[in-house]
Amino acid sequence: MASVRNLPPSLENTYDLRSSHRIECGIPCILVTLFNLKQYTGLIANINAGGCMCILSPISPGQAKILNIENKVLLEFDLPSGQGRKIFGEVANVKHDGAGVSLGIKFNDSYEDAALKELADYLLNMMKLPSA
Q: Which CATH number fits the domain that encloses residue 43?
């Protein structure tokens, strides 16, 4: 994990700016940018009740350039229980890697409290499961 500070390699992975641990996952999603209503398909790579990392399917360089920090977005995904979720958020981090783009998204916790509570409960249960 790259950090904003210059840390020794032995401490590089222990420094985390998040207030709670993110759970690694692979949840298919649709991300909608609210400024132009463009839809992107992607995969939620990790998530917690405060936000997630969304890796978008390959997009053109022109599309990638318009994805910026502070863009308002709507993230649509299904929990494994089959419950569809729509959560509003804001792009907090953008990483470009060729045609790939990953977005750090901070959820808007004041908008959809019920959805975030369900998500938090689901994640808490996932953390309690024994690893395979």
A: 2.40.10.220
